[in-house]
Write a structure and sequence with these properties.
With 397 residues, the protein is of the alpha+beta class. It is built from eleven helices and nine strands. The protein folds into three domains: 116 residues, Acyl-CoA dehydrogenase/oxidase, N-terminal domain (Butyryl-Coa Dehydrogenase, subunit A, domain 1), CATH 1.10.540; 101 residues, Beta Barrel (Butyryl-CoA Dehydrogenase, subunit A, domain 2); 147 residues, Up-down Bundle (Butyryl-CoA Dehydrogenase, subunit A, domain 3), CATH 1.20.140.10. The radius of gyration is 21 Å and the shape is globular. It comes from Streptomyces apricus.
C-alpha cells in the first residue's frame, strides 16, 4: 500500500487511481501539488477569519486547472473524462472543502450553465474568460424561502420589455457572488410561468450581493444574499437554450456527482489526519493506533471511503458513456455524504479533545461536512428521486 508521502494516497486502498490514463494522472498530480503548495498554507487562517484569499484566483489562473471539462476552452482540448474531474474534486476537498466549493461553483455550476444552456455565441463570449479565470462565475438558484421546492416555488420573476428583461426577487446561499463577475440567475418568466436563465453582471444597477456572516461551515466560501430590484438584463444575456426548470435540473444532475466526489475528498482528508494522529499520539505508553477501538474506527472509515470510491468510479463511467441519469447522481450524493458524516465524526473522535481545535485541521473537516451534506439537494430529496426511479411511484408532496 502506498503512503501519503509518495505519488499516491494511502486511503486509495484498492488503487482506484490506476483507472486514470497516464496523461490524466499527470493532471491529477498537478492538482495535488497545487493544493498542497498553494492552498494548504492559507486555509486555517482564512477559515478562522471567514475570508476568501483572493490571491488564489491568480494562482488558479496560472495552474491551468480550470475549464478542463469543456471542449475547446482552457488549457486542454478535448475535454477530459468525468473520472479525472471527479478525482480533481476529491483532491481539492482532501485539502479544503471551501476552496473546492469555490472551484466547483465557478468551474461547474456557472460554467456548465452557460455550456449547456447558452447559444454558441454566448459560450464563445463568456467561457474562454471563465476558463482562464480572468472572470469569475456564480450560480443563483436557491431563495430565502425556497430551497428544495425551488422548482415549483421560485419567487424571483423575469418580465420581458422589448429586448430587455426586468428581474425582481431574492436569492440566498450564493457562493462567490460577492466578487463574481458573472452570476447565472434563474427566474420565473411571468408570461409563461417557466424558469429562464440570465447571466447578470455584478455591477448591474439593482443587483446587490451581501455576504452571509457567522457561518460554522465552509467559512472560506463567500456565500451571499442577493436582492434583485428592477435589474435590467438584455435578451442577448438570457441563456438561449433554457426553456424550463428541466434545463436547470440538467445542470444539477451533472454537478451533483461532483459534490459526491467532494464528500469523498473530505472523508479522505479527515481519515488521513486521524491515521497520522493515531500513529503519533501515545497514551498508556503506546501509540493509540495500537488500540483495538481506534483501529476499529480507522477500518470502518477506510471501508466507507473504499465503498464510496468504487461507486463514484462507476458513476463517472456512466457519465462518460452517456447513460447517466438523475437517479444515478442522486444516489451517489445521498449515500456518499451520509458516509462522509460518519467518517468525519470518527476522525474527530480519534483526536479526542484536540479534535475541536482548528490547529489540528480535523475540526475544519468536521464542520465543513455539514454544508456538503445539505447543498445540491438534501439527502431526503435525493432519496425521493431514487425512490421514484426504483418503484415507479412519486413520494414527493
Amino acid at each position: 500500500m502506498r503512503s501519503s508521502t509518495d505519488d499516491g494516497i494511502a486511503a486509495d486502498f484498492y488503487d482506484f487511481e490506476a483507472a486514470l490514463s497516464d496523461e490524466e494522472r499527470k493532471i491529477l498530480l498537478r492538482t495535488r501539488a497545487f493544493m498542497r503548495d498553494e492552498v494548504k498554507p492559507l486555509v486555517n487562517e482564512n477559515w478562522a477569519a471567514g475570508t476568501f484569499p483572493k490571491e488564489l484566483i491568480a494562482r488558479f489562473r496560472e495552474s491551468g486547472l480550470v475549464g478542463l471539462s469543456y471542449e475547446g476552452y482552457g488549457e486542454h482540448r478535448p475535454a477530459v473524462s468525468h473520472l479525472l474531474t471527479g478525482m480533481m474534486a476529491l483532491e481539492m476537498s482532501r485539502v479544503d472543502a471551501s476552496v473546492a466549493t469555490f472551484y466547483g461553483v465557478h468551474n461547474g455550476l456557472a460554467m456548465y450553465s452557460i455550456e449547456a444552456g447558452g447559444s454558441q455565441e454566448q459560450r464563445e463570449r463568456w467561457l474562454p474568460g471563465m476558463a482562464s479565470m480572468d472572470t469569475i462565475g456564480a450560480f443563483a438558484l436557491t431563495e430565502p424561502l425556497d430551497g428544495s421546492d425551488v422548482a415549483a416555488g421560485m419567487r424571483t420573476t423575469a418580465e420581458r420589455e422589448g429586448d430587455t428583461w426586468v428581474l425582481n426577487g431574492a436569492k440566498r446561499w450564493i457562493g462567490n457572488a460577492t466578487f463574481a463577475d458573472h452570476v447565472v440567475v434563474w427566474a420565473r418568466d411571468v408570461a409563461d410561468d417557466q424558469v429562464k436563465g440570465f447571466v447578470v453582471a455584478r455591477d448591474t444597477p439593482g443587483f446587490v450581493a451581501e455576504r452571509i456572516e457567522n457561518k460554522i461551515s465552509l467559512r472560506i466560501v463567500e456565500n451571499a444574499d442577493i436582492t434583485l430590484t428592477g435589474v435590467r438584463v438584455p435578451e442577448a444575456d438570457r441563456l438561449q437554450n433554457v426553456e424550463s426548470f428541466r434545463d436547470v435540473a440538467e445542470v444539477l444532475r451533472a454537478t451533483r456527482s461532483g459534490v459526491a466526489w467532494q464528500a469523498l475528498g473530505v472523508m479522505i482528508g479527515a481519515y488521513e489526519l486521524a491515521l497520522a494522529y493515531a500513529t503519533d499520539r501515545e497514551q498508556f505508553g503506546h501509540p493509540i493506533a495500537g488500540f483495538q477501538l481506534v483501529q476499529d474506527l480507522l477500518v470502518k472509515s477506510l471501508g466507507n471511503i473504499t465503498a464510496c470510491w468504487g461507486m463514484l468510479v462507476q458513476l463517472a463511467r456512466l457519465q462518460d458513456s452517456g447513460v447517466f441519469r438523475d437517479e444515478h447522481s442522486s444516489l451517489a450524493k445521498a449515500y456518499v455524504t451520509a458516509r462522509m458524516r460518519e467518517v468525519v465524526g470518527w476522525a474527530r473522535e480519534i483526536f479526542g479533545g484536540n479534535g475541536i481545535v482548528l490547529d489540528y485541521d480535523v475540526a475544519r473537516f468536521f464542520a465543513d461536512a455539514e454544508a456538503i451534506y445539505s447543498f445540491e439537494g438534501t439527502r431526503e430529496m435525493n432519496t425521493l428521486i431514487v425512490g421514484k426511479a426504483i418503484t415507479g411511484e412519486s413520494a414527493f408532496v
